Write the structure tokens for this entry.
Amino acid sequence: MLVFFIIAITVVVSVIGFGNPNVFERFKFNTYDVLVRRQWERLVTSAFLHADWMHLLFNMLTFYFFAPSLIGYLGSFRFLLIYFGAILGGSLLSLYMYRKNPYYSAIGASGGVIGVLFAAIALDPHIGIMFMFIPVPIPGWIFAIAYLAYSIYGMRQTLGNVGHAAHLGGALVGFVLAVAFYPATLVYNTFVVVVMALPLIALAYFVYKER
């Protein structure tokens, strides 16, 4: 029920945003509005807005497929901490990386969804990730490493109209909180958890260089 409730709220707010530009502009993430106007709520409210139906559908389907297993491992309260912590982590990393660009804006639940996905992978690194154009599932930890490498490159090169920083911030929070809440995964999956952590350490280094 918790998963369906979050999906329902996100869909309703997104649909309102589709038809009401004022709502969309007021609650999207924007560096100027957060840093200068002190509208800190945008760090979270932007996650309930989406660019279009495809953007919304992709995020909610990913959320639907991976959220239940995470709740099964950690319970509802810790799941909520991961989801909203990942949203906030993604927004804060975006805010830091683009703090000198007052026009930078972003929307979407991707930070939280990627946080849920990476938390699920941290707890079960061999979970299968399916793509329509690939007939066999990809082990989660391999997907995670490839995705992080691509996102770090995309963030540094400002590649495409994608919030790479939000994805990376969400992934970092989801991964760290999952391991903190379920440290047994370090015993059962030591090698893959350490390997997955390497791109996140590289991310921390790149963020440090941006001071």
In short: The CA atoms of residues 130 and 167 lie 19 Å apart. The longest helix spans residues 53-74. The chain has a mean pLDDT of 92. The first strand starts at residue 29 and ends at 30.
